[in-house]
Every structure is written in structure tokens, then in C-alpha cells.
Design goal:
globular, 7-stranded parallel sheet, Rossmann fold
């Protein structure tokens, strides 16, 4: 298959590497002149520049894995709405049309904050701009003239992202609340898996099998590091005793996908085994 990875940052690079290993022809679309992963081709373009995509080669699978440059409404609009809209417009004029567009959305589209379980059918009523802009991007995927899949990812962690480990070492306190996460390798594997399905899934939640209270993850890390257990900070009254939400991954599992890191324990064991600085 010919695959286009638009926005090859932390997740997109891992995805491109995986697709190359699987034998696909991979084109990486980036604004920067960063060298693509071995075996992939580079296409340098700014999605917001008119005519920048005129020479974009056709692709069977298109993955939109772009990330906002910063956490602001303007940055989220550029990344998840305007940039995606330009790409969809260009893809819609291609011959042949892509077989599938996969968009990395986020569980931020769910506004639930009382510890509820949510799945793909749950209400999406985010209170902040992040979830709202992501929903706008999802609507663009739904309106495209070719099949689209939304992968609503939890917090991505993995090689090079050791902030939670460092917080455990620092004895940081965390407000009670559920967290949902997915290892980068599993997120990349899920995208490749969903692209190859005979029929496109419209929407899938991408989280591991253990939505967990943040204090439990920190306590587990502290125990592994032989440090005192952290003390959770008081939660805001509006969130109740257990804030956040718990996201189900049943639909992803039903497609036949299997996690390499099914819970935070396996994922952080792998990170703890890495040499410092990697």
C-alpha cells in the first residue's frame, strides 16, 4: 500500500517506521526539513500555504497525526481544523481517492469529569477549546468523500517521555482523578491495524486496558523506584472524589487488536529499563 503520514512527530515517526517495516511505500509530510525515517520518502510542505500540496502524490492510506505547536486555541485550530481541511480538500481532488483517512483525535472530546465510563457512543461535550477543535476536525473527516476513521487517543507516553517517572522521583502530589493512556508503540500499531481492516471503523477509542487513578500510577512507580509513596493533593470540589473519566477500549479489542503494553505497568517497566537520556 501507498501510505501518507501527515505530521510525523512523536507518534507519526513511529507509525512511519512501522509501515516501512511492513513493506508499505511511505511518504512523510512535514513542514520542516527533518530527514524522514529510513525507507520513507519526504514531502516538505506547509498545509496552510496555498498550492503547497499541488504535487502531493496519491496514497491509499492517509494518516493525519499532526500535533498543535502549543496548547492554545489558535494553535489547535491551525493543527486540527485548518491544516486538516486543506489536506482533505487536496485529497478529494486526487485520482484515485484514498481508500481511508485516519485521524488521531483525542479522548479530550469527552467532557465527563465524574469518573464515568465512556465509549464511542458517549456524549462529546468538551468544556475546553482542545476538545472543541478536535470535534471540528472529526467533522471534517466525516464529511470527506472517502472512508474515515477517528482514533481517539488517550495520553501518549513512551521512549523519551519520562515526565511521570521524574514526578514520582520528585515526590510530586497529584489530584485524585482517572487517567487514560497508551504507549506510543501501541498507538502506532493501532493506526496501522485499523488501516488494514476490510471495513473502516468510523470511531475507535485508543487507550490501554487500565484506566487508573493518577495516584495509583505514581504509587506504583514510587514503589518500583524504592521511594516513599506520593500523597494525592485535594481534588477541586467540582470534580468530586474521583475526577476524570474511564475510557473503554472494547471496540478496538473487538477488531482483533492486541496490545504490546496492555497496562501502564508493562509500559513503564519498559521505560524504567531504558538507559537514562533515551
Amino acid at each position: 500500500m501507498r501510505a501518507l503520514v501527515a505530521g510525523a512527530g512523536y507518534l507519526g515517526t513511529a507509525l512511519a517506521q512501522r509501515l516501512v517495516r511492513q513493506g508499505h511505500e511511505v511518504v512523510v509530510l512535514r513542514r520542516s526539513a527533518t530527514v524522514p525515517p529510513p525507507g520513507a520518502q519526504a514531502f516538505r510542505a506547509d498545509l496552510l500555504v496555498p498550492a503547497a500540496l499541488d504535487a502531493l502524490p496519491p496514497a491509499d492510506w492517509v494518516f493525519y497525526t499532526a500535533a498543535a505547536d502549543e496548547r492554545s486555541d489558535a494553535a489547535y485550530r491551525l493543527a486540527y481544523v485548518e491544516g486538516l481541511a486543506r489536506l482533505v480538500e487536496r485529497l478529494a481532488r486526487m485520482e484515485p481517492l484514498p481508500q481511508r483517512l485516519l485521524f488521531t483525535s483525542s479522548t479530550a472530546v469527552y467532557g465527563q469529569q465524574g469518573g464515568e465510563w465512556v465509549d464511542e457512543s458517549s456524549a462529546t461535550e468538551p468544556a475546553d477549546f482542545a476538545g472543541q477543535r478536535l470535534l471540528e476536525g472529526e467533522a471534517l473527516v466525516h464529511a470527506a468523500p472517502f472512508p474515515g476513521t477517528l482514533l481517539r487517543l488517550g495520553g501518549i507516553y513512551g521512549p523519551g517521555r519520562r515526565s511521570l517517572i521524574e514526578r514520582a522521583r520528585a515526590g510530586a502530589a497529584f489530584a485524585p482523578g482517572y487517567t487514560n493512556r497508551i504507549h506510543r508503540e501501541d498507538a502506532a500499531a493501532a493506526l496501522a491495524h485499523l488501516a488494514a481492516l476490510p471495513r473502516a471503523e468510523v470511531c475507535v477509542i485508543g487507550v490501554d486496558s487500565a484506566p487508573t487513578l493518577a495516584c495509583e500510577v505514581l504509587s506504583w512507580l514510587a514503589q518500583r523506584l524504592e521511594l516513599p509513596a506520593p500523597r494525592p493533593a485535594p481534588a477541586p470540589a467540582a470534580r468530586g472524589a474521583h475526577g476524570g473519566k474511564r475510557c473503554r477500549n472494547a471496540r478496538l479489542l473487538a477488531t482483533g487488536f492486541r496490545f504490546r503494553y496492555p497496562t501502564y505497568r508493562e509500559g513503564y517497566e519498559a521505560l524504567l529499563a531504558e538507559p537514562e537520556g533515551e
